[in-house]
Amino acid sequence: MTRPVRPLRSPLLGLLALAAAAPRAEAHDGPPYPVITDRTTRYGRLSAWGDPDVGTGTFWIDLERAGARELEDVEVSVAVQPVDGRLPAQERAARLVQKAPGARRYLCEVQFDAAGTWWLRARASGALGREEVEVKVEVTPPGQGPVLDFVIYSFPFVTAGVLFILAMVRRRRSARSGAPRGTGAGPSSPPAAACRRPPAPRAPPASGWRRPPGGSRTAWRRGSG
After folding, report:
1. Rounded percentage of the chain residues whose pLDDT exceeds 90
2. Edge-to-edge strands of the sheet including 103-112?
3. 46 phi-psi bin (left φ>0, alpha ψ -120 to 50, beta other)
4. How confident is the model over 102-147, as pLDDT tens digits?
5. What is the mean pLDDT of residues 25-35?
6. Average pLDDT in the chain
7. What residues contact residue 157 under an 8 Å CB cut-off, 6+ apart?
8. Which pLDDT value is given to residue 94?
9. Per-residue model confidence (pLDDT) at position 39
10. Between the CA of residue 31 and those of 47, 85, 125, what are the distances in Å?
11. What CA–CA distances, in Å, run from 130 to 76, 107, 109, 127, 221?
């Protein structure tokens, strides 16, 4: 009869502890993410993707025309300012990097001197006047470099893999230790002591014993000399 294998709680507790100890991703640190999504303006739908790191922040502004109006005369700019107002707003013109029928993509780089919450204002100007979309973005410190970033971000996955392997090894050992040792279907073998052969009869000594004449083959008597 096999013993029930107890649930492996230690690896699970280790994973929970790892998840609790990992730093929370409260701000952005990685590829660009959407900061403005399909805002309606007089020039069409405006969307923006951003990578707001301390130092140089990069933003991509997408503009899709509304109706039959072309976008040839539209200029786009980006202005940023700390929410606490410690610095005046700085505005940078965006350059056209991609053109498609009825759509334009602009690229703009701005400077952030510190982490925190900043105002982002995407502006489109043309014959219909100026349109502005304002949102808040979280500016974060830049990464630690490609090698160190890879080590930091892959550490939880490597640890989880190691814990999983250890859990499987422990489960197999528990299953083997609880399995019955006897596997034969027939009756069990007798102990080794019961299988011993009986001792052979002792032979008569070579001298001092003689066979009586005409006697039985098994009858022996001790001679008087």
Report:
1. 38
2. 33-41, 44-51, 55-64, 103-112, 95-100
3. beta
4. 899 999 999 999 999 999 999 999 888 899 999 999 998 876 444 5
5. 66
6. 75
7. none
8. 96
9. 94
10. 16, 28, 28
11. 9, 18, 20, 8, 140
**How far is residue 73 CA from its own chain's centroid?**
48
Tokens (6 digits) for 33: 């993410």
Model pTM score: 0.52
**Which CATH class, in words, describes the domain spanning 33-139?**
mainly beta
Q: Which two tokens stand for residue 110?
A: 């701005």
Report the SS3 class of residue 194.
Answer: helix
Distance between CA 104 and CA 120 in Å, rounded? 20
- Contact assessment for residue 78 and residue 123, using Cβ atoms and an 8 Å cutoff: yes
Distance CA 23, CA 18 (A): 10
The whole-angstrom separation of Cα 139 and Cα 27 is 7
Instruction: Copy the structure tokens of residue 125.
Output: 């100007």
Residue 124 buriedness (CB in 10 A; 0-12 / 13-18 / 19+): buried
**Which pLDDT does position 90 carry in this prediction?**
94
Reported confidence tier of residue 7, pLDDT bands at 50, 70, 90: very low
Provide the pairing of β-strand 116-126 with 129-139: antiparallel
Q: Quick one: tokens of 165?
A: 């392997």
Contact 108, 76 (CB under 8 A): yes
Helix (H) or strand (E) holding 17: helix 9-21
Task: With beta carbons less than 8 A apart as the criterion, state whether 108 and 93 touch.
Answer: yes
Domain ranges of the chain: 9-23+146-177, 33-139
Residue 202 tokens read as: 């002792």
